[in-house]
Design brief:
The complex is a heterodimer of chains A (133) and B (221). Chain A is α+β, with helices and mostly antiparallel strands. In chain A, 28% of the residues lie in helices and 31% in strands. In chain A, helix 2 packs across helix 3. Chain A is elongated. With 221 residues, chain B is α/β, with parallel strands linked by helices. In chain B, strand 7, helix 7 and strand 8 form a beta-alpha-beta unit. In chain B, helix 2 runs parallel beside helix 3. Chain B is globular, with a radius of gyration of 18 Å. In chain B, 49% of the residues are buried. Chain B has one domain: Rossmann fold (3-Layer(aba) Sandwich). Helix content of chain B is 36%, strand content 22%. Classes of the chains: A alpha+beta (133), B alpha/beta (221). The interface between A and B is large, with 42 and 38 residues. Strand 6 of chain A pairs antiparallel with strand 1 of chain B, so a sheet runs across the interface.
């Protein structure tokens, strides 16, 4: 397992580990308001241009959450497509291929990014301890 | 036990983004133009920056550089020969620079005394694109030896760039570099981006690049 991580790091993928460590910090901070709660799921919104590979995130998540309140929780990654604004068509359009930033309606180049670089924690699902009455 | 969904809606790199915002404010107040140079290892970022610094210093401009590498201060020593103040950032295994490292390495420098600050990122075309360093201009570099389709392979970086530099143009011919294809590919990923075709060795394209820098700085305040 560590050997595989080492290989991934060597291939320049270690930033997913930094990203996952930031997730652990944010969620742990949030949990302070819910003492004793157990995390079941962490849901992310990740833009297709965010430079994040889901496999690497999932892999690093398992390691980075060990011995934390997030241990054993599932990481749900929602990938958001790239949306650009096309001036000619006066509308936001979805870019299907990251190899060509052109409006799918009029085929003109588009450079005004409206969605695609998100890297957010959307929500977490927790099991809360019932308060004693 | 009750199950509850807690909405967070927060940026994962919030801490870096906040620090970068702070740095950007400082740079703007000080009137220094900050550029973040990103490319693969071996593209020639250091040689390009060396030439840029040397020409800026010779023209009387005040330029400084921070240079990121996993290990060694070889690049800082090379760049310091230009006469510009240079500091090395060693990331010790981290594949990109973060705003915190930049802030820490600026301590003691009077930003008000600078016209330009160049940040040479760790050689990597993937990871640096997620991390804002507070720069005004992100520069993506590509050498004629790397293949014209590199922008298509790494769209996340090229799409976030404000300017593109093609390096080592002096050896374009023996490398069989297809200039038209390279320009087309960069434009497919980042339509309308300014592209400079340069050689740190012969100085080709440097005049246009320096004019762009002066212009970008002039339009700042």
């Amino acid at each position: 397992m560590l050997l595989e991580l080492w290989f991934r790091c060597r291939r320049g993928r270690v930033h997913e580990l930094s990203i996952v460590s930031s997730i652990v910090d944010s969620v742990t901070e949030t949990l302070a308001a819910y003492p004793g709660a157990r995390v079941k799921e962490v849901r992310l919104r990740v833009g297709a241009l965010a430079s994040v590979i889901e496999d690497s995130l999932q892999f690093c998540y398992g390691i980075a959450t060990e011995d934390t309140p997030l241990a054993g929780s599932a990481l749900i990654v929602k990938i958001l497509p790239v949306k650009m604004h096309c001036d000619g068509c006066a509308t936001d359009v979805e870019i299907a291929s990251l190899q060509s930033f052109r409006c799918p309606i009029c085929n003109e180049p588009v450079s005004d990014l409206r969605q695609g670089r998100e890297l957010e924690i959307e929500s977490i699902e927790i099991d809360e301890v019932e308060e004693n009455v | 036990m009750t199950t509850r969904i807690v909405e967070l809606r927060q940026g994962i790199l919030k801490k870096n983004d906040e620090l970068a915002r702070g740095l950007r404010g400082q740079f703007e107040t000080a009137g220094v133009l900050v550029l973040n140079l990103v490319s693969s290892p071996g593209t020639g970022k250091t040689a390009f920056l060396e030439r840029t610094l040397r020409e800026l210093v010779a023209s009387g401009a005040k330029a400084a550089a921070l240079v990121g590498d996993l290990e060694t201060d070889n690049d800082a020593r090379r760049l310091a020969a230009s006469g510009a103040p240079v500091r090395q950032i060693n990331t010790h295994g981290i594949c990109h620079l973060e705003a915190e490292m930049v802030g820490k390495h600026l301590e003691g420098w009077r930003l008000r005394d600078l016209d330009y600050l160049f940040i040479e990122n760790v050689g990597n075309l993937v990871c640096p694109s997620s991390y804002d360093l507070g720069e005004k201009i992100r520069v993506a570099l590509l050498s004629v030896t790397e293949g014209e389709d590199k922008p298509l392979k790494y769209p996340t970086l090229f799409n976030s760039a404000d300017a593109a530099i093609i390096t080592k143009i002096d050896i374009a011919e023996p490398c069989g570099f297809d200039r038209t294809a390279a320009l087309k590919n960069i434009n497919e990923i980042r339509p309308g981006i300014r592209i400079f075709e340069t050689s740190a060795k012969t100085g080709a394209g440097m005049a246009e690049w320096l004019a762009f820098l002066a212009d970008a700085r002039g339009h700042r305040v």
